[in-house]
Amino acid sequence: MADAKVIPFDDDRSRGNRRRTKAESAPAGEVQPLPLRGAAASEDAREDDPVTPPAAPGPQTAAGDDGDGDGAGDGGLERRVAAGLSFLRRRLTGDYEVDDFGYDAELTDQVLMSLLRPVYEKYFRVEVKGVENIPAEGGALIVANHSGTLPLDGLMMQVAVHDHHPADRYLRLLAADLVFVLPVVNELARKLGHTLACAEDAERLLAQGELVGVMPEGFKGIGKPFGERYKLQRFGRGGFVSTALRQRAPIVPCSIVGAEEIYPMIGNSKTLARLLGFPYFPLTPTFPWLGPLGTVPLPTKWTIQFGEPIPTDGYAPEAAEDPVLMFNLTDQVREQIQHTLYKLLVQRRSVFF
């Protein structure tokens, strides 16, 4: 594999390899509308799908409930089976939609989030705070610390927004180019709504009113030694601030506690990293000594806290080119995240409980 490189967040190079498909391809420049989610999506699917029977009136107390309170009545089971068959038919025939970046809302909601949710709820037992600080509509940039050797913190942050935000919003993450050269990982990342960490892609998503997540520490944060846990690394050159200023989007700081301990990195094999084209090759108390078993993360207790948004709409348009302002705002975001991390660590009873 070629040596991985990190594309700077403020790299404005053109990207021409994004998919524009509904099952194959869409006309150039046309942005595919995102599929409906939740109940609206289910109703829309029933109107277009002859396989799914319409809900019939009856003595049920709730949808799919036969009156005994367990939600497992025959009507509910039939609807679930019909919905599952309808989903499989659409996947097999290609009758589903993705946007310009490859985001597949239906697959994410019905499959990928269902796979991540048990890890989020049962394994890491994530506690979410301050989700109401995320705007209910419009573009916003969520900036978080990055840690844990493998980027599970970004995925858990996506689940937190998806499952807990009252406006049913979804988070689109910016990722390093290494993610998009790995087989399988590349396709799954695109389906989940991830895109390259460059200013061009971030600005397009913000302009469309999306929530965009960025972790400015990059590999410096996720691959730092265990002895430097919860000490934020440098936040790059402030490209994320410039992007937020240009789109007049608020910046929401996010602090994540618990990810630092899932793979305690006690060493780094630079030779293996160079041979494999990775930015680092972690050595932990369990990996590679225990083989595949060593890849299982430790079941730490997580807390994700979203801070108060920092508005950017009060600045003049030319402010995005002011290096002093970008430095000050970058430092403000970084300090707010660091302060919240220390506060959460003081409140934490145990790494695992």
Task: Give a short synopsis of this structure.
With 353 residues, the protein is α/β, with parallel strands linked by helices. The chain has helices at residues 38-48, 74-93, 105-123, 152-164, 185-191, 199-207, 219-222, 239-247, 270-276, 323-347, and strands spanning 127-129, 140-144, 171-175, 195-196, 211-214, 251-257, 267-268, 282-283, 303-306. Helix content is 35%, strand content 10%.
β-strand amount: 5-15%
Helical content stands at 25-40%
Q: Regarding quaternary structure, how should these chains be classified? A: single chain
The number of strands is 9
Q: What is the terminal separation in angstroms?
A: 40 Å
Structural class: alpha/beta
Helical segment tally?
10
Mean pLDDT: 83
Question: Strands across the major sheet, in which order?
Answer: 1-9-6-2-5-3-4
Low-confidence stretches: 1-72
Report Rg. Answer: 22 Å
Largest sheet: 7 strands, mixed
Shape: globular
- The H-and-E topology, N to C, reads as HHHEEHEHEHEHHEEHEEH
